[in-house]
Design goal:
CATH topology of the largest domain: Arginase, Chain A
Number of domains: 2
Number of helices: 11
Strand order of the largest sheet: 1-3-2-4-9-8-5-6-7
CATH architecture of the largest domain: 3-Layer(aba) Sandwich
Oligomer: single chain
Number of strands: 13
Helix content: 25-40%
Distance between the termini: 58 Å
CATH superfamily of the largest domain: Ureohydrolase domain
């Protein structure tokens, strides 16, 4: 087995003829550390990875060319993201997720932008720490019916992050959300945060997402050495995203009654209680909730986890079902 198959190309060579590639990595850092570390790894699945260098002022043009070529995009940024206006759609609705430790200065631009953007149809903030989150910003997020997953809850069951990522088009990863012990270049010097294994598992869930278009990774310290724990961990994050992308299976639970790979599980919440319908895939192990829209009798399918099913089986209505039932059926 050969080392990781990365093809280095100039940004000008990006075209529709490259559609067979799994992903395009756009590197805006001034270091080759991530590329060198990635090439030391080994592929598990058949992958074709393209890699190009681009200046920070060339990102929007490079991304546009990659989107026209129908490529998945992983953009490696420096310490901060480019302006949100240049990397998020502004003429259509979009969905996004953010993995960061809170609402601090570094992630303010993307978090604040999304919370104010009327085109943000769905958003999830994952792995935040309460003491690093401005309470007024968190209240705004909740008031807009966006989702959030605190680090302490995530640590109990890492799979809870998968449903929040499954339908997202754009995902933003702040490397500073990783604790100092696992990322010695962490400029916040925070003793708490995601473990290296946890961010890699989350990266795998990102690659398994059904609508993923782009991933932006930022918080890469400019003073980081070319070969360092940071560059090696970042290469492993990319590896997990790419491997999941190359083996991802698209599934539509709306076809559950016709597709033998889906199993419908109905849980009755007491004699006069609500029946909750779960759908699970025998191919991927994914779970969905079937949530009725009362006014139209239409069913909506919302990503969930096995934990939600187990909660229902124990007699508790899953919080995720209540949240989306109220969201779909507002008073």
């Amino acid at each position: 087995m050969s080392n990781y198959p990365v093809e280095i190309i100039p940004a000008a060579a990006i075209s529709e003829n490259l559609s067979e590639a799994t992903v395009l990595i756009i590197d805006t850092t001034r270091s080759d550390g991530v590329l060198n570390a990635l090439q030391e790894l080994y592929p598990k699945s058949p992958v074709r990875v393209l890699y190009t260098k681009a200046g920070i002022d060339q990102i929007d043009v490079t991304i546009s060319k990659a989107e026209r070529a129908d490529l998945k995009i992983i953009t490696l940024c420096g310490e901060e993201l480019p302006k949100a206006q240049s990397i998020l759609p502004h003429n259509r609705f979009y969905t996004a997720a953010l993995i960061s430790s809170g609402s601090g200065k570094v992630e303010n631009s993307i978090l604040q932008y999304i919370l104010k953007d009327k085109s943000a149809l769905d958003f999830a903030h994952i792995a935040y720490q309460t003491y690093r989150y401005d309470s007024s910003i968190l209240k705004t997020l909740i008031a807009k019916n966006f989702e959030e997953l605190r680090l302490g809850v995530l640590r109990k069951d890492i799979s809870l992050s998968e449903p929040l990522l499954r339908s997202k088009e754009s995902v933003f990863i702040d490397l500073q959300s990783i604790r100092f012990g696992d990322l010695p270049d962490n400029t916040t010097l925070s003793p708490n945060g995601l473990y290296a294994e946890e961010i890699c598992q989350i990266a795998r869930y990102i690659g398994m997402a059904q609508k993923l278009k782009s991933v932006f990774i930022y918080g890469y310290p400019s003073k980081s050495k070319s070969i360092s724990p940071t560059s090696r961990l970042l290469s492993e994050i990319i590896w997990h995203i790419n491997e999941a992308l190359s083996s991802n299976i698209y599934e539509n639970p709306e076809n559950s009654e016709k597709d033998d790979s889906f199993m419908r599980k109905i849980v009755s919440m007491g004699d006069d209680g609500q029946e909750i319908v779960f759908i699970t895939s025998s191919l991927t192990g994914r779970w969905w909730l079937e949530i009725p829209e009362v006014k139209t009798s239409k069913n909506h399918y919302v990503a969930c986890s096995n934990t939600d099913y187990l909660s229902a089986c124990s007699g508790e209505i899953p919080l995720r079902w209540l949240y989306f039932f109220q969201k779909i059926n507002p008073n």
